[in-house]
Amino acid sequence: MTRLSQASVGDLPASVARPNYDRGAIRTGVVHLGLGAFHKAHQAVTYEAALNRGDLRWGVLGASLRSAGVRDQLAPQDNLYTVTARDGDAVHTQLIGALQGVLVAPEDPAALVAAMAAADTHLVTLTVTEKGYKLDPATGALLRDDADLAADLRALDQPRTAPGLIVAALARRRAAGLDPFTTISCDNLPHNGRRLRDAVLALAGHHDQDLRDWIDARGAFPETMVDRIVPATEDADLAALQARIGLIDRAMVKTEPFSQWVIEDRFVGQRPDFAALGVQLTASVAPWEDAKLRLLNGAHSGIAYLGGLAGIEFVHQFVAVPAGRGFVEALWRESAETLSPPPGLDVPAYQSALMGRFSNSALNHRTRQIAMDGSQKLPQRLLAPALMRLERGQSIDTLALAIAAWMRWQEGRDDTGAAHVVDDPLAARTAGSVDLTADEAVAKLLAIDAIFPPRLAEHPALRTALVDALSHLRSKGARALIEARFA
Ligand code: NAI
Ligand code: CS2
């Protein structure tokens, strides 16, 4: 079967939406760091809409900071790929033409810095995962002893990290008399714009105080809330797409119909007409971000660890079980009370829409995918609402169960005894407490201050609730425990 490429676009069925602009005429307005499934199904779709509206400034140059895989997948396809949104039997496929090329940073960091420093580049966006920022998850402080960051602290001629690349490119722009670009984090980090800005300023200040002051005065790092569920693509997805469109697209992404992007209205220089593209611009993103991180992502993490322990493969299967749904609703009752919802967000309606999204059986979103990198995710999803509740004297039974499920997942065995690898940058510290008593395991994990802020870790009610939940998870198993509590 033929591979998708510029030459084979004409063979696509008429049902596939495709670019209405001349790809040869677009400029590169965006450099994206961390080209993965989420960028391809979320921000790139917005740039595609801008191009389709005739604003040809918003072509995207993607960059991988790690492997060449994504470049090698896209190059034979002339950087074309499809996005398929599915919900139940409904399916819609769109061909994306916005991506113009992919650079692999470790192969040639200077080429990437030059692209970021080009006069046409107005936006640098990031989806490098929570761990890609090289920040302490609990405090947001720079991880100065990380090997790559330590290299960028020594010299920035061959930057290795996202903050390093940004500082090197901003230095070049300043030397060339250009404005900075707007730097937009699209990762699920709390205060993502502020954290990235602090990291960039700290690194810049280490090398050149004047550069730091220039970025401080002239740069823009808007906060964002990003939302679209984009599970990793699997072989079965490739085969299903192939059967539907009659071409091979190895770079495809699958997602849900829903998509939301809220950006703090703080830019330097040019940007697309975001409002016309359905992006919400606001003075204050934090209330949106808290609601999304605590309700959507908090529930996701609870589902990932309890579901993973119980041998439930997919999110939709977890919420199809009444006890699973009951757990999510109970978690939301606790977390929702910690929010100050933004005007325009109806929390009960949001929750009911979320339950519908979790139930989307066409997505096959793996609990194991979400279980990855828990140390980087727990603070904003589960620990922040737990601390707020404890400080107000409120109960945290369901939040504690979700946190204890993460603790049990670190033991590396599910409830059937099957082994799994704990995929987490802090796994050397979190994993393998299987031989400890529940008391000892909780104490060991609470002592990791990169995850648990001392004010939370030292709260006696937290420790008691976690030991209780972990003991029950060990003795009963996740499935029986949620059946007993939430069915
Ligand atoms: P992915 O695995 O498809 O892509 C991840 C990208 O991050 C790849 O380019 C990878 O090379 C890069 N990366 C990973 N570790 C890195 C590190 N230590 N340093 C630099 N780059 C690194 O994952 P996907 O689905 O694109 O998600 C990426 C991030 O996007 C998530 O961690 C999350 O913060 C955000 N996001 C994802 C959503 C989703 O449903 N997939 C939805 C909302 C946000
Ligand atoms: C998920 C998120 O993998 C995870 O940790 O919770 O990527 C989730 O799919 C997105 O935030 C949805 O917007």
Q: How are the elements arranged and paired?
A:
Layout: E1 28-33, H1 37-41, H2 43-52, E2 59-64, H3 69-74, E3 81-87, E4 90-96, E5 99-104, H4 109-117, E6 123-126, H5 147-154, H6 162-175, E7 182-185, H7 192-207, H8 209-218, E8 224-227, H9 235-245, E9 253-255, E10 260-264, E11 280-282, H10 286-310, H11 315-320, H12 322-336, H13 347-358, H14 367-371, H15 374-391, H16 397-409, H17 427-430, H18 438-446, H19 454-457, H20 460-476, H21 478-486
Parallel strand pairs: 1-2, 1-6, 2-5, 3-9, 6-7, 10-11
Antiparallel strand pairs: 3-4, 8-10
Helix pairs in contact: 4-6, 6-7, 7-8, 10-12, 10-15, 10-16, 12-21, 15-16, 16-20, 18-20, 20-21
This protein binds 1,4-dihydronicotinamide adenine dinucleotide and D-mannonic acid.
Descriptors:
Rossmann fold; N-(1-d-carboxylethyl)-l-norvaline Dehydrogenase, domain 2; globular; alpha/beta; 5-stranded parallel beta sheet; 3-stranded mixed beta sheet; 487 residues
What does this 3D model show about the protein?
The protein has 487 residues and is α/β, with parallel strands linked by helices. It folds into 2 domains: 274 residues, Rossmann fold, CATH 3.40.50; 201 residues, N-(1-d-carboxylethyl)-l-norvaline Dehydrogenase, domain 2, CATH 1.10.1040. Helix content is 46%, strand content 11%. It has 21 helices and 11 strands. A 5-stranded parallel beta sheet has the order 5-2-1-6-7, with helices on both faces. The protein has a 3-stranded mixed beta sheet with strand order 4-3-9. Strands 8-10-11 form a 3-stranded mixed beta sheet, with helices on one face. Helix 6 packs across helix 7, helix 12 packs across helix 21 and helix 15 runs antiparallel to helix 16. The chain is globular. The site of 1,4-dihydronicotinamide adenine dinucleotide (NAI) has 21 residues, from helix 1.
